[in-house]
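S.,

Sequence below, as promised.
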Amino acid sequence: MIVENAWYVGAWSHEVTPSPLARRLFDFPVVLYRSLDGKACALIDSCAHRGAPLSLGTVVPEGIRCNYHGVVFGCDGICTKIPNQETIPANARVKSFPVVERDDIVWLWHGDPERADPSLIVDYPFHRDPAWPAKFAMAPVAGNYMLIADNLLDATHLAYVHGGTVGGSDPNVHMVAESALKPAPGGLRFERLMRGAPPPPAYSACVPELPERIDRWQEFDFVAPSTVLQYSGGVPAGSERASAPAPRFDMRIFHSATPATESSCYYFWSVQNGHATDDPQATEVIYAQIQQAIAEDKVFIEAQQLRVDELGEDRLFDNAADAARMMARRAVRKYARAHAAPAATEDA
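The prediction came back faster than expected:
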């Protein structure tokens, strides 16, 4: 199920330029581009004249020009020019998507344009905060978009999948972690604290001076339908987290999954370095560690999708460690009901 009447990440701001970018979003071909006056635009990637992809076109002052016959469409999808013809037919238009650009993210609305409410967009000021230097990435994943949040909110996989990176090799560290899970507006908050734990290899790679035992934390804010904001770190065991000086490790990650199809998605993620903010190399190191961890997750998510496609989900069971994942799925269903089109609500 692709939840409608919701905002999804279409691209990072730096990806959207006057050179058209083709993506499949919400099971539609979409072209993203930046107009010559700097506005981010998103249209169905098919000319209303003969159907050629607009992503093969050129951005011109009037909009995006289809390079098959020269027809031009504005950011609103309405045709602005037909070569050698003054009259423009009423149906000379393509579907456009509401777009909001904020925090270095280009958000697209999937659903009824009249219901596109920018107040529903997740705020993430850390992308522009010099105290949290950031690096951005996107990973195409051959798996349903909701599997990304399922994975992030499942702490018990860390030692098995990420023993050599962000997890550490001792499963017991994660099994006995102090945790708190509670509903939040639009989703949930999930907090974990691991006292006196060995720093995982990724933490040590970023901050080699960390002692043998640290107090680790993980905080996740899930916002339906598909965004997770993460803050993780560690300080010497027994230290006050708020005031502990170096050596310490602090990291924020923005995660958001956008459906390409029912069984594939774009996994947008950015990582922010909070422990060595004046050292660009420190940001590169933390990025490399998270990139490796996401590659590890991708292997399992894509293999999981193949098995679910083949065998279905009815046979699967939940265990105690699935509480956050299950609450997130309930939040998605609640969002879908609250924002469903009136006819769909009545039918339900």
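The chain has seven helices and 17 strands.

Coffee later?
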